[in-house]
Amino acid sequence: MKSIIAKMAGKRIAVLGDLMIDEYVFGETNRISREAPVLILKFRSRTIGYGGASNAVANIASFGGVPIPVGVVGKDNSGESLLELFSKCGIPTGTILSDGKSTTTSKTRIIAGGMHSMRQQLVRIDMEPSAVPAPEKIIALLKRAMESGIDGLLISDYGYGALSDQVIRFVNSIAKKNDFPVAVDSRYQLLKYRYSRLAAPNEEEAGMHAGKSADDLAKIEKAGESLRKKLKSRCLLITRGSEGISLFAEDENPFHVSVFGSKIAVDTTGAGDTVVSTALLALCSGATYRESAVIANHAGGLVVMKKGAATISPAELTSTF
Question: What is the mean pLDDT of residues 2-24?
Fold first, then answer.
């Protein structure tokens, strides 16, 4: 396992998906407004970070991989902030389209608490794209990323428009050629994808897309293999929260891995991005499906013990084996 983790460094992974930015606004609350029965938040600080497909990009970079983000941002403050974040980390931005007709997807979380009390999220404000990018432009960007030479392709589809039907058909044609591993993480459109080396839904998504309940191990096994065959995927990795991960690979029996670490997570934000990114990097580094599942399970167990959409280092992951 340690050898596989060491080989992740330098792997070039194109990440096609909905690039987002996460914003956190922190403040203190100690009184109620006279204007309405709402808390008054005294502003203290603001931080920005990666969200959506951007978080998958950050996870690949944290392992020493070379992520190539492919997608669209708006010509707005959030878009500029995201491009700046990428540039500061040495992540190339040449395959990101800055579109004046669109809006950068962002999620603003208002976090409040007293001076000596735990902070809690009060509300989340989502800014969604105002226009869907032309499929031809997305495909051209992906072709440019592939021409630069890649070891794998990760699809991070959050349903905000980057992955239209036309783009998905192009991705399926790439996956069918099997020139390099293609991994798919799609919340709403998973059934449109075909031939991937790896598909990675969570338990709820797997049950929904398989058309079967998936709330216990026996049902998971039926739903998992059924869904893998529907997708014509070589491997299906179902993340099951505190129950760990279940793997369904062609010509293999189901493989279940218990959760690594504590069953009580600090924050599950972005954990799915960490799992699929790690599993794909492991596959690109010569891991078997079972080895990739175990390594991804360890990565997921580590990242849920951190707040926000976090990442982990190769040293942290290596230390668990």
Answer: 96
- Looking at the DSSP bridge assignments, the partners of residue 184 are 155, 199
Q: pLDDT tens for residues 196-224?
A: 999 999 888 887 887 766 667 888 888 89
Which of 99, 151, 157, 273 is labelled catalytic? 273
Instruction: State the amino acid at position 262 in one-letter form.
Output: S
What amino acid is encoded at 61 in this protein? A
Query: Angle formed by the axes of helices 203-210 and 217-231, to 10°?
Result: 60
DSSP-derived letter for residue 202 is B
pLDDT single digits (tens) 227-247: 999 999 999 999 988 889 999
Find the length of the chain: 321
Q: Which CATH superfamily is domain 2-21+50-104+128-318 in?
A: Ribokinase (3.40.1190.20)
The domain spans of the chain are 2-21+50-104+128-318
Element at 315 (helix H, strand E):
helix 314-318
Work out the angle at residue 256's Cα, subtended by the Cα atoms of residues 253 and 257, and round it to the nearest 5 degrees: 140
Residue the block writes with tokens 């998992």: 224
pLDDT band at 270 (very low <50, low <70, confident <90, very high): confident
Distances (CA, A) of 198 to 2, 68, 155, 250, 282: 22, 19, 10, 11, 11
Based on the residue annotation, tell me whether 273 is a catalytic residue of this protein: yes
